[in-house]
Amino acid sequence: MSVTSKKSLTFPGGIHPPDKKSLTVDSKIHTGFTPKEVAVLLSQHIGAVCEPLVSKGALVQAGQKIGDCEAFVSAPIHSPVTGKVKEIALRPHVVMGRSMAIVIETLPAHPVKRGCVQINEEFDINKYSVEKICEVVREAGLVGMGGAGFPTRVKIEPNPRLPKTTMIVNGCECEPYITCDYQVMLEWTKQIIIGIKLAKKASGCSEVFIGIEDNKPRAIEMMETVLGSLGADGIEIVPVKTKYPQGGERQLIRSILKKNVPTGGIPPMIGVLVLNVATCAAIAEAVVANVPLTHRVVTVTGEAIAEPGNYYVPIGTSLETLLEVCGGVTQKSARVIMGGPMMGFAVADLTTPTTKTSGCILVITKEQMGKAKFERRQTACIRCGRCLEVCPENLNPTKIAHAVKNNMMDVAKSYYINACIECGCCSYICPANIELTGHIKTGKISLARQKKKVP
Amino acid sequence: MLTDITVSFAPHISKKHSTRSVMLDVIIGLAPAMIAAVIFFRLYAITLVATCVISCMATEGICNLIRKKPNTLDDLSAVITGIILAFSIPPAFPLWAAIVGSVFSIAIGKMVFGGLGANIFNPAMVGRAFLTASFGMMMATWTVPGTIDPNMPQIAASENAVDVRTQASPLAYSKNAQKAQYGARELNESVGDIFLGNVGGCLGETSALALLIGGIYLLIRKTISFHIPVAVLLSTFIFSGIAYLINSDYYASPLYHLSSGGLFIGAFFIATDPVTAPLTRRGMWLFGFGVGTITMLVRIFGSFPEGMMYSILLMNAVTPLIDRMFKRVPAGGLPSAR
């Protein structure tokens, strides 16, 4: 099946926000920064929360496993630094509010200067068996680094009930401002390709499509060059149309394969596996060099940052420390966002540590947000239908949001509230500035509470 | 140093437009028709539009005061209601009656439902319906354009005063032609003038050309989608085409019907009022075909010469049903039964 012949691969709906990537697009990945203290959260992924394996006062080595869990859908955590466990205490968590974290004080004698592990030796896929890849991927604590944080082992492990045939590698990075995946594609191309080959073998997929938005021609070229030198072997690079949310897995599958993941379902139901490029690089690191996931590339950007750029950051560094490294915030009043401007979470407490899934720290001000958005001024819905037009899941956002607002959950359900992917297109486009996505999220949580799925 | 942190739901950026800018676009879209109205009806156009706009805004302001709600005048929707109402009444309409119509439009057509976004019917059309029911004679008194057209047959022309010479609107004339069973052929030859607007009729409705320019502006700016206007014009064309094919001597041609009366202002500016039109595309098609078909039913079979207002009001009434009929299905298909 050839998909490159089609001109522009896209999906219905979506928006074109100003991409603002020029702030950090030429920023090489800065390595070699060690914070004084890291707080490694015990819950950095979807699934069961880890149990700490070390106690207060213990000495830990860089890369040592410090938390694990027996549950199937879970991933262990590792210490990114060599140091002493200061305490095991609650720390702010962007999604959950607060979560237990292992706080480690770095020993000054052991600064860890680490970049991505370079793989220089000849790569031979036959050295690694499927079982070994899956086992190492779990032990290294790999989770999806695109944002959701689903444990990678659960994704790539062959499942006889839902056999996977196609793998899609997500290099879209459709959110404005973020460039971390782009830099990873430029600098660590070899690791990505090796990671893809390993994941392909482990999952048993026969074809691989690497989806990259067509506003990143350098990344496409670089990936193609390295892919050529390592052997394509059923792997194909497909440029997709630049549009938000092209990097959403349901949208990417729709663009490339022209297939729909069932509502409420997951990609394996149609035999598809979606992995982020950064995850693929981490797979290669873990399997070939046996290094666990303790660092990741974070784009620190926004108009209110003195020196925006891409930084290779130990997981667990607090935002405060990270912002200091980037020259601090130049404005008095700003919004600090963990993630991109479309789906990221606004942070109120700067001691919040970064996690395996935080690819971007964004600090923007009133000017970038727009005055109405900043002041949260809303006017009445004029039923203009723009939200329906941009909804990539073909829903009726205004109807759902107003049903939730008026506490009519049955109506919200009848308009398929749970099919919402929370991409934020409707809120972005709304001329009345109504927080449609916010209402829908609230509705989804209260529905889940009714079913007693979350506390 | 960062001292002031704000939080809210994602997304944290939004497109730089507002309800106000959308409404402003519509006003710009109405500007060509305004210019045409000034050319054809001179001072009448300016006084009537100013009267309607000011009384609509005043009514909205007073209603907000009574309801103890924040001021909503800056969203400019009252201005549009005023302009459209002024455009859809005869040029020499008494100003006191225009004020009554404006007050009714805003107070009963919009504010009693809860203001912008909550009204069921298009406020300007509610006001016009009220005026038609209350002052039927005044609503059918058409002024001859300032650029007097000698070709247009003048019916019931009065020579009492120079500036209130009246004549029939093209549609009234075609209705008479139909009733009196005399030919519609000479009507069909005047299509050019009707398209330009050089005829008697409501203030802003006469120039189909100016309205088309404004409508195309709205389409380019993506303020409206093409579905409703195309559906209205297409259904009108088909329906009048059928009538014309059956008896071309008796019925006016499709082009005559398309360019006369309130068809263009209705198709581009009134039926597309987002508040009272369906949300989904398929719903918009149905809505547009409904508007066009009912208009032609009234024009051909009804006792009124023009049916745009009634067809829009009737379709406004069924908009919630249309929305329920064409419910969107999620892209991933219906969720499996839980």
Q: Could you characterize the architecture of this molecule?
A:
The complex is a heterodimer of chains A (455) and B (338). Chain A has 455 residues and is α/β, with parallel strands linked by helices. Among the domains of chain A are: 21-25 and 116-289, NADH-ubiquinone oxidoreductase 51kDa subunit (Rossmann fold), CATH 3.40.50.11540; 378-450, Fumarate Reductase Iron-sulfur Protein, Chain B, domain 2 (Orthogonal Bundle), CATH 1.10.1060. Chain A contains 15 helices and 17 strands. Chain A has helices at residues 130-139, 152-156, 180-187, 189-203, 217-230, 249-257, 277-289, 319-325, 366-369, 371-374, 386-390, 397-405, 409-414, 425-429, 436-450; strands at residues 29-30, 37-41, 51-52, 59-60, 65-68, 77-78, 83-93, 97-106, 166-171, 207-213, 235-240, 272-276, 295-301, 309-314, 333-338, 345-347, 360-364. In chain A, strand 7 and strand 8 form a beta hairpin. Residues 1-5 of chain A have low confidence and may be disordered. With 338 residues, chain B is an all-alpha fold. Chain B folds into two domains: 20-139, no CATH class; 145-152 and 172-319, no CATH class. In chain B, 56% of the residues lie in helices and 1% in strands. Chain B contains 14 helices and one strand. The radius of gyration of chain B is 21 Å and the shape is globular. At the A-B interface, strand 15, strand 16, strand 17, helix 10 and helix 14 of A face strand 1 and helix 1 of B. Strand 15 of chain A pairs parallel with strand 1 of chain B, so a sheet runs across the interface.
